[in-house]
Write a structure and sequence with these properties.
Blueprint lengths: L14 E9 L2 E6 L3 E5 L14 E7 L2 E7 H4 L12 E7 L2 E7 L1 E9 L3 E2 L12 E7 L2 E6 L1 H8 L7 H5 L7 E8 L3 H13 L2 E7 L2 H13 L4 H4 L2 E4 L8 H10 L8 E5 L7 H6 L4 E4 L3 H12 L1
Parallel strand pairs: 2-11, 5-7, 12-13, 12-14, 14-15, 15-16
Antiparallel strand pairs: 1-2, 1-8, 3-6, 4-5, 6-7, 9-10, 10-11
Keywords: Phosphoprotein
Protein name: Chemotaxis protein CheV
Organism: Heyndrickxia ginsengihumi
Length: about 300
């Protein structure tokens, strides 16, 4: 299954397609854009002393790929997979990873508006759930796959040490709006941007909240570019995704001069055109924090 062909005819529609899969009789979802293909389970070679989530490695058309056991990730007591088990082959954060699940059932095309952010009562920074979809009598839980991979290998995430390689940084009074649904990444971005000299960063959990803030400034009669000098946005977010946020900014009078950087694990050569279509001024793949800072410097200094 190719993930990026014929899925969304237009960018910025605030829609996505998700693949519904099952683990221990619970239903979960993954963005089709992340998925390269779905295959039958292959022979897994066990790696000594690997992370508990890592089942081992497989060889797929000449590539050696890690296999993540989703029953262990989701802390299932039952570790035996059912007869319909599948391997979901993914690509994001500039790497390919295989997720072992019980079953893959169907594809849904939905609006991001239908995805509710998790309540604080059952979610936390340590939780893998980033969104909830009500589907008939069931619920589909959207998982934070970037967080899962970071837990396995913390070295692939955003790091303050990388910013220090840029040398001494001057403090800046430039104001930035940043939309990111992951609490973990918001914390890391705040720390690294502060290290880079950008301390005036206002964080929002999704594109809808970020745009509502910008729109409120306009309604107060303020000039946007005097109040905010740059917007940074993720792509995958409940309520409003980053492509739709970018499109709304670029199509709104008195707001369209505001530079927008898309900072996402979904920035690949085959998907970069989606950001270009909606008018993004720059696109950077996570976790390339140095590249992000270089673009910030170029756009607002």
């Amino acid at each position: 299954m190719e993930s990026n062909k014929g899925i969304l005819l237009e960018s910025g529609t605030n829609e996505l397609e998700i693949i519904e899969f099952e683990v221990n009789q619970n239903k979960y979802g993954i963005n089709v854009i992340k998925v390269k293909e779905i295959i039958m389970p292959a022979h897994v070679t066990i790696i000594p002393n690997a992370h508990p989530f890592v089942e081992g490695i497989i060889q797929l058309r000449g590539e050696v790929l890690p296999v993540v056991n989703m029953r262990k990730v989701l802390k299932s007591q039952e570790q035996t997979y059912c007869a319909n088990e599948k391997f979901i082959v993914t690509e994001f954060n500039q790497q390919k990873i295989v997720f072992h699940v019980d079953n893959v059932s169907k594809i849904h095309r939905i609006s991001w508006e239908r995805i509710e952010k998790p309540s604080d009562l059952y979610s936390s920074q340590s939780n893998e759930i980033v969104g909830v979809i009500k589907q008939d009598q069931d619920m589909i839980l959207m998982l934070d796959f970037e967080k899962i991979i970071t837990e396995i290998n913390p070295n692939i995430n955003i790091k303050v040490a990388e910013v220090k390689k840029l040398g001494k940084r001057e403090r800046s009074n430039k104001r930035i709006v940043l939309a990111e649904d992951s609490a973990l990444l918001r914390g890391l971005l705040e720390e690294t941007l502060n290290e880079a000299g950008y301390e005036q960063v206002k964080f929002f959990e999704n594109g809808r909240e970020a745009f509502a803030y910008l729109d409120s400034l306009l309604k107060e009669g303020k000039r946007i570019t005097e109040e905010v000098q740059l917007v940074i946005t993720d792509i995958e977010m409940p309520q409003m995704d980053g492509h739709h946020l970018t499109k709304k900014i670029k199509e709104t009078n008195d707001m369209n001069d505001l530079p927008v950087i898309i900072f996402s694990s979904l920035i690949t050569d085959t998907l970069r055109h989606k950001g270009e279509i909606v008018g993004a001024d720059a696109q950077v793949s996570k976790p390339e924090i140095n590249e992000l800072i270089k673009y910030i410097d170029a756009l607002i200094l």
